[in-house]
Write a structure and sequence with these properties.
flavoprotein, globular, 8-stranded mixed sheet, binds 3-acetylpyridine adenine dinucleotide, 16 helices, 5-stranded parallel sheet, about 550 residues, Cyclohexanone monooxygenase, single chain
């Protein structure tokens, strides 16, 4: 239980506080302004951009096509912005976010270098008091956490890390100034999507690269390339129609859904389908070949083995190919990675793979990394060790709701909320792309718009009806948690130790953290709740 806050000012500083100036927070600000509300965005970083501000490691790039991974709310914006590549690089996405901020005049309400440390609800005035690490307090009727799905880097917990006398970087806290690897002996620890993107680029510069792998990923070729002016023009001509289809889609990308089980097809047919998907360069290409890749172990294994065969065909050393082949979890139950030259990088003479399952790290030393096989002397260590995903960024804030109950207490056994949007006992506090919503299983550019728009309509409803507070009924919250768990249980997702389940963070409750029913269905559920007068919520 937290201490009761002191007296509040008669009027709130602003109508709404938005936490985070990434894609979600900036769009939320835009929508709140349209309602005529005053809002401030509090952002920990030295600039706007969120994920695309922090994750500026070499090779950082989106794994959803650029024409699709962008805001859809402004047809004019769609027409004027020019993406240069099929998959946008981090610098280009950051430029896009800056362009949007300027175009919609968003910056003047963003407070940079301001991390929210605490938010306390006052049940008498129905206001939130939000404190920052700069010592500022802002009061507001509404708080929207747009803190990102993956914004709290995970502490790798490797002993001796502080003793290393060389340079250390985490992919998610990459410095803004240039980092040169030329002539350096470099280690990358971690082979998730961040490591997979960084490794080939670092290998292109470093004198020697050692990759420390605990679990190999399924890495699919991105087939990134510059976009041709003609294809962009053609795409733009049908942008409105595409955006409509995207909004109605299952995952925020548009495709023809499969109709058959992988097990109904014979091997030759399956291989042809998988080859076409591999060549497509799409993150979900393989997943979309058949209906049951994510629900049937035997169907899934046909894809997993196809990817392993590709690894064997690319990596010349059979022992290395074997180590790079994922076997401990079904395909796509951890997010697959889109890579460029990832497997071929291991054919380079100065690149070495260390399997941490057989030769674990004992300690980081002042000179390098010591495994059970000896010490590797290094100049630079790159941690690509991931995030405390989905719940980490909210639990990093000391959030105190009704009756002094904290969010950390409420979520001790895992996140609890209704529609992934609000938790019982924390009135007028909304979350964008939070746990138990489809977020990370979709094109988040589409998901965030859906949630921001729902939240905005909800706030408008409160204001239009002279209401001051929206809270969640504990029953609705329990039902939602059960529903999300039940949808996950129909899939193979829970079979993997992944950040989807919280398994990557020691001590984190094991809960499947995303709504696996599809964005289309989720949108319908949210809209039904709103149409029904916000069923499951308590309005007063
Ligand atoms: O993090 P991860 P990430 N010692 O958790 C290893 C999105 N993303 O930053 O699997 C040794 O996936 C860990 O090993 P293991 C995307 O959604 C998108 O790469 O726990 N190793 C794993 O190999 C993605 O899924 C894009 O056994 C340790 C790696 O570090 C998500 O972000 C690009 C370790 C962490 O992989 C997270 O990706 C990048 C330790 N102590 C990221 N601790 C695109 O859009 C962890 N590991 C393309």
């Amino acid at each position: 239980m937290a201490a009761t806050p002191g007296p509040l000012p008669a009027a709130p500083t602003v109508d709404a506080v938005v936490v985070g100036a990434g894609l979600s927070g900036l769009y939320q600000l835009h929508r709140l302004r349209e309602l005529g509300l005053t809002a401030v965005v509090l952002e920990a970083g030295a600039d706007i951009g969120g994920t695309w501000y922090w994750n500026r490691y070499p090779g950082a790039r989106c794994d959803i096509e650029s024409m699709s991974y962008s805001y859809s709310f402004s047809p004019e914006l769609d027409q004027e912005w020019q993406w240069s590549e099929r998959y946008a690089s981090q610098p280009e996405i950051l430029r896009y976010i800056h362009h949007v901020a300027d175009r919609f005049d968003l910056r003047r309400d963003v407070m940079l270098r301001t991390r929210v440390s605490r938010a306390v609800y006052d049940g008498t005035s129905h206001l939130w008091r939000v404190r920052t690490d700069t010592g500022r307090t802002v009061t507001a009727r509404f708080v929207i956490l747009a803190t990102g799905c993956m914004s709290v880097p995970k502490d790798p917990g490797i002993p001796g890390a502080d003793s290393f006398t060389g340079t250390v970087h985490h992919t998610a806290r990459w410095p803004r100034e240039d980092v040169s690897f030329t002539g350096k002996r470099v280690a990358v620890i971690g082979t998730g999507c961040s490591g997979v993107q960084a490794i080939p680029v670092i290998a292109g510069e470093a004198a020697a690269l050692t990759v420390y792998q605990r679990t190999p990923a399924y890495v699919l070729p991105a087939r990134n390339r510059p976009l041709r002016a003609s294809e962009v023009a053609e795409f733009k001509a049908r942008y409105p129609e595409f955006r409509r289809a995207q909004r109605l889609s299952r995952g925020g990308t548009v495709f023809a859904p499969p109709t058959r089980s992988a097990l109904e097809a014979d091997e030759a047919e399956r291989t042809a389908a998988y080859e076409a998907a591999w060549d497509s360069g799409l993150l979900n290409g393989l997943l979309r070949t058949y209906t049951d890749i994510l629900t049937d172990e035997a169907a899934n294994e046909t894809v997993a083995e196809f990817v392993r065969s590709k690894i064997r065909s690319i990596v010349t050393d059979p022992a290395t190919a074997d180590l790079l082949s994922p076997r401990t979890f079904p395909f796509a139950t951890k997010r697959p990675c889109l890579g460029t030259d990832y497997y071929a990088t291991y054919n380079l003479p100065h690149v070495r793979l260390v399997d941490l399952r057989t030769t674990p790290i004992e300690t980081i030393t002042p000179r390098g990394i010591r495994t059970t096989q000896g010490e590797q002397v290094l100049d630079v260590i790159v941690f690509a060790t991931g995030f405390d995903a989905l719940t980490g960024s909210q639990l990093a804030i000391d959030i105190v709701g009704k009756g002094g109950v904290t969010l950390r207490e409420r979520w001790a056994a895992g996140p609890r909320n209704h529609l992934g949007l609000m938790s019982a006992g924390f009135p007028n506090l909304f979350t964008v792309l939070g746990p138990l919503s489809p977020s990370v299983l979709t094109n988040i550019a589409v998901s965030l718009e859906q949630q921001v728009e729902w939240i905005t309509r909800c706030i408008a409803h409160l204001l239009d009806n002279g209401l001051t507070e929206i809270d969640v009924s504990p029953e609705a919250e329990a039902d939602w948690g059960a529903r999300v768990a039940e949808l996950a249980a129909r899939t193979l997702y829970p079979a993997a130790d992944s950040w989807y389940t919280g398994a990557n963070v020691p001590g984190k409750p094991r809960v499947f953290l995303a709504y696996a029913g599809g964005l289309d269905r989720y949108r319908e559920e949210c809209d039904t709740v709103a149409r029904g007068g916000y069923t499951g919520f308590v309005l007063s």
